[in-house]
Recover the amino acids of this structure.
């Protein structure tokens, strides 16, 4: 027979070495057994992912812990306040949520800038290197499908400022549904009818240049790179 705490998620040794993760994990490890003792219904909902439910509640409106607890309970997840507080704190320390103090409450919201920055930056760089709109879109699908190892939705291309590609590979319903779960978990709303794409072309050289440029820019290492100079022929 399993112990009452057998559902507590485990973390790898590498993760626990991270001070932020360790702090959140300790908080969560404390909250879970306490909540179990006082009585929590459906602490881990098998059919629904708790993170997805929390992010879904915060897509359109920032919410306090009390408001979020009430709305989650309506969705079938009745959590003790200590458990929800620890879980939200962990998501905030991981950079997934933002928290602001509005006495007497803490109000949580999605950290959307991370995704917007990534998509927007990719789109900007592709516009700098490719003039053909359709080829630029196919390059965008290739870069994103290599990064995320899954098909790419039209909504993601829109965030890059790219139109839908004219040439692409069809994506099956099962693979599409599986890919959509990742966006749900990240708090990105994707319409049920949103098209999904893969491309067969290989833009590996462009991908390498784009990612290396992005890394240099984000790490502020561009001054270390020798820029290519054009040589004028006389």
């Amino acid at each position: 027979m399993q112990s009452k705490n057998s559902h507590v998620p485990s973390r790898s040794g590498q993760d626990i070495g991270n001070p932020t993760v360790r702090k959140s994990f300790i908080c969560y490890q404390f909250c879970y057994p306490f909540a179990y003792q006082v009585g929590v219904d459906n602490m881990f909902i098998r059919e629904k992912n708790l993170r997805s439910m929390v992010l879904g509640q915060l897509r359109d409106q920032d919410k306090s812990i009390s408001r979020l607890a009430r709305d989650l309970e309506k969705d079938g997840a009745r959590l003790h306040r200590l458990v929800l507080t620890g879980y939200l704190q962990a998501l905030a320390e991981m950079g997934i949520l933002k928290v602001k103090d509005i006495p007497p409450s803490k109000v949580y919201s999605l950290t959307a800038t991370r995704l917007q920055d990534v998509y927007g930056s990719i789109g900007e760089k592709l516009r700098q290197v490719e003039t053909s709109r359709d080829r630029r879109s196919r390059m965008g699908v290739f870069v994103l499908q290599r990064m995320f190892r899954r098909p790419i939705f039209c909504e993601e291309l829109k965030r890059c400022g790219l139109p839908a590609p004219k040439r692409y590979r069809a994506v099956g319903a099962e693979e599409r549904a599986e890919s959509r779960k990742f966006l749900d978990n990240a708090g990105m709303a994707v319409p049920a009818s949103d098209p999904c794409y893969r491309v067969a072309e290989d833009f590996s050289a462009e991908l390498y240049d784009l990612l290396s440029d992005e890394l240099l820019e984000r790490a502020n290492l561009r001054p270390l790179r020798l820029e290519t100079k054009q040589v004028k022929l006389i």
